[in-house]
Amino acid sequence: MNQKKRLNILDHLKKKNVKLFILFFVIAFVFLIFSKLSNDYKQTIKLKVNLVNVDDEILLKNDSANYIQAYVEAKGFSLMPFIFNNSKALEIDAKSDVTIKPNSFIFDVIKHKYLIEGQLGNAYDLISIMPDTLLIAYSKRASKSVPVTFKSSINYAVGYDLKGEFNFNIDSVKVVGSLEEVDAISSIATEALVLNDLKSDINNIVRLDISGYDHIDVFPKTMEVTGEVVRFTEGTIEVPILITNQPENVIINYFPKTVTLSYYVDLENYNAIKALDFKVECDYAELEENQTFLIPKVVKKPDFVKHINIKQKQIDFIEL
Questions:
Q1: 42: burial class by Cβ within 10 Å (0-12, 13-18, 19+)?
Q2: Which N-terminal stretch is annotated as signal sequence (predicted)?
Q3: Is the fold of 40-140 the same as that of 234-319?
Q4: Which CATH architecture has domain 142-231?
Q5: Structural domain spans, the chain
Q6: How is domain 234-319 classified at the architecture level of CATH?
C-alpha cells in the first residue's frame, strides 16, 4: 500500500517537472526572440510609388517598374511586417513632387530622399536608394465640361409642393474618355430621383447616368440635390386682359375683359398675391383666318406661384 503511494507521488513529481520544463523552455524561447528582434538588421524594401492628386484626364500605366529599392537599417521589430510582404506604398504628389513630360512623370528619387525618409518613419535608417530617377508612364485622355440635366419623378403629398427651385451643389461635370466619345457628349443626365408622398425637405445624392457610354468617366460622379418642401394652397384672382399686336386700323370689342386665374402658392406668400403681379395677354397677330376668338396667355407671374391656370380658355371678339 505504501509502495503504491510512493509511485503515485513520483508520477506526480515527474509530470510537474515536465510542465515546469516546458514553461521555462517557452519563456527562454520568447526571451531569445525578443533579443533577436531587438538587434539591428539591414534589408532591402520595395517602395511602390503611388501618384496622388493626378488630373482626371491622366491614365497611369500599371507598370511593374514603378518601384524604388530602399536599403534600410532597422530593428527586427520594425522589419517584421516585411516578412510576408516586402513592399510599402510611397505616395508622391503629381502637382509638386514630379516633373511632367509628354507621356511620363519624372520623379527625382535622390532629390526627394527626405520625402522617402519621412514616409518610412524614424524607425528606419535609409542607407541607399535606387534608381536615382524614376519614370512613371501615362497616357492622356480627352476631356471637357458639360452641363448636368437633373431627372426626377417626385410625387408630393396632398397640400405640399416645392418652394422655389431645386438647388444643386454642381451645375456641370467633367467627362473624360476617347476624343470621339467626348466630342459627342453635350450634357450628362442624372439617374432619376424617385420620391413619393413627399412632405419633407429634399436632401438627396443622385448619381450621374453614364450607362449609355462604354469608355467614359465622369467627375464628380454624384450630385447633391436640395429643396424646401412646404404646405401649399390654391388661390384665385381676377386679372384684366391686354390685347397686343392689334393693327391701328382695326377696332375690336372683346369680352370678357378679365379672366380668372387659379394658382398654387405656399401659405407664407398667400396673402401677398395681387392682381398687378400677373399679366394676361391676347396676341392679335396669332389669329387664324375666320377665327373669332383670342387665346389668353399668362406672360407674367410671381416666381413663387405654381400650376397657374386660366379658367376662360377663349376670349370672344368682334370687329367694329
A1: exposed
A2: none
A3: yes
A4: Beta Complex (2.170)
A5: 40-140, 142-231, 234-319
A6: Beta Complex (2.170)
Strands 40-52 and 87-93, bridge-based pairing: parallel
Closest alpha carbon to 210 in 258, 176, 180: 176
Residue 76: phi and psi, rounded to 5, are: -60, -35
CATH class entry, domain 40-140: mainly beta
